[in-house]
Amino acid sequence: MTTDLGARRVLSLLVSAFRLTRAAAPAGTPLYAVLCLLAGVVPLAAAWCTKILLDGLAAGGGWATLVPWAVALAVTGLVSGLLPVASEYLKQRLDRAVAVLTMDRLYQAMGRLTGLARMEDPRFRDKLQLAQQTGRSGPGQLVDDGLGAVQAAVTTGGFLATLLLLDVGMAVVVLLAAVPALIAHLRLSRARAEVLWSITPAERREVFYAELLSSLDAAKELRLLGLGDLFRRRMLVELTAAHAVVEGQDRRDARVRGLLAGLTALVSAAGLVWSVWLAAKGSLSIGDVAMFVAAVAGVQGASQGLVHNLASAHHSVLLFHHYQEIESQPPDLPLAVAPSAVPPLRRGIELRDVWFRYAEDQPWVLCGVNLTIPHGRSLALVGLNGAGKSTIVKLLCRFYDPCRGAILWDGVDLRSFAPEDLRARVGAVFQDYMRYDLSAAENIGLGDVSSMDDRARVVAAAQRAGAHDVVTALPRGYDTLLSRMFFDEADREDPETGVLLSGGQWQRLALARAFLRDRRDLMILDEPSSGLDAQAEHEVHNSLRRHRGEATSVLISHRLGAVRDAGVIAVLTGGQVAELGTHDELLSLDGDYARLFRLQASGYDEVVTR
Ligand SMILES: Nc1ncnc2c1ncn2[C@@H]1O[C@H](COP(=O)(O)OP(=O)(O)OP(=O)(O)O)[C@@H](O)[C@H]1O
């Protein structure tokens, strides 16, 4: 990550932020810009009114000539009082509109990621996190900073032009007081931005340890292994390391700012004495002196505002840059220009010489897999941990494309389909299935959103997965919230609001979710019964056997007893299909499958015969 984007990129980001804000609030954005410009002009108008009024008074001007200027001064006072209120209100509205649009665009962009590879890239995840954090307010903040800088520039430019009209020397004095301070502050803000970037890794690690210490998932291990002290110490090391770097920058800031404040006060005082001397000589009027005092204060205030806006814009630009990168990213899988419709599966799915690895610097997981999943039959994938079984499942869902070779759906390469069309024909239970903090019915209904409200289908799916009894025993049956999160204050005190399920009970719900989708052409079950008790596992596999008659399915299980009825069993070893056949064929082959099956069976035999 860098703090240097180049002037062109910064400019294009500023323009994009303005466009985005304009799109979010077509009327509010120009109105806000006008208010900002007005806020830049008002101090100038007030100073001019004061000068004319004082000069008029000094010259003994009459009531009729002075009153309009007094009224004008009063109006500038009123406007400068009301402007911040109106601007703030408008700004808040603008921010809300921008937040809705940016979040919508960000998550639409995320929706265009149809694969998994980019989601797994740590650099992408870093950017995504920053984009999520700043997407809501980033563009609005950038526009605000830009307009603030314009406002400050208008005030400064106006005062300088006025002084030039009155006395060139005074204009030079005011410039002398402001410019070095402006340059120094800009340098300081740049240095601060660099310091803040340099400590982000430490801050991330600190947040990681802090989250670990308060994580429910980690709580058991942390307590049992006594890791709390270790992680707390590590968190504090990161925190103090980041603080030490910031402290150094704070000291540099304080030194330079102190010096500049002294210098500015000195130049202003000298200028004031000089202008009073000129007024005493008669070269300047009282109004000119008042204008000078207002100009010094105005330019100093505006240049400080300018520094603040530029520093903040610098920071906002960097963050908006990440948002833009995520928002404008291309799809992560090559998409067919004219995707073919996915026909109902008739013959089967063929993996033809499929090679795959997760990244170029990682080892091959699949090295030329040839395998057919015939239509209407079940294929079981068997192999040791890390053999590549789940990887095949992910390729079948087209979360990745093979590096070499192809996967064919009735002879058509999966790459010629739109991923969402393909997935509409697939149902799956993944090894790392989701547990949604939603009701039991919704946890099942998500399997087929169009049937989510069809309670009869939801119940039937739950019955097939052995989840019906679990759900009906819950305080509110299918409408019980499966979470300890509360959604509103009324829920907080209600002990029946949320319920936590056991691992196996959650797995039954995940299965039910997949069963709701069983009208699909391919059903994938990756370790669907790993967390189930023996009784439930037996029932689930009976149910699977009964229902898979006409369905094409892929089943992964380490419990070989559960796969023995599969139409065909493939044993994966060394990234290839080492053995293929029915249970009986593989037993008579006497290879790895037979060895593993006997090993598992002997475990049970020993217990039974003991
Ligand atoms: N997202 C990933 N990025 C990089 N490597 C991965 C990723 N997922 C899996 N792998 C690697 O690919 C190999 C195969 O993993 P896979 O999950 O397919 O094995 P598996 O046969 O399903 O194992 P298990 O029986 O333990 O579930 C492993 O070496 C694993 O480390």
What's this entry about, in short?
64% of the residues lie in helices and 10% in strands. With 610 residues, it is an alpha/beta fold.
Protein model, in words:
There is one protein chain. This protein has 610 residues and is an alpha/beta fold. The chain has two domains: 321 residues, ABC transporter type 1, transmembrane domain (ABC transporter transmembrane region fold, Up-down Bundle), CATH 1.20.1560; 262 residues, P-loop containing nucleotide triphosphate hydrolases (Rossmann fold, 3-Layer(aba) Sandwich). It is built from 22 helices and ten strands. Strands 6-7-8-3-9-10 form a six-stranded mixed β-sheet, sandwiched between helices. A four-stranded antiparallel β-sheet has the order 2-1-4-5, with helices on one face. Helix 7 runs parallel beside helix 11. The longest helix has 54 residues. The model has no long low-confidence stretch (mean pLDDT 87). The structure holds adenosine-5'-triphosphate. The site of adenosine-5'-triphosphate has 13 residues, from helix 12.
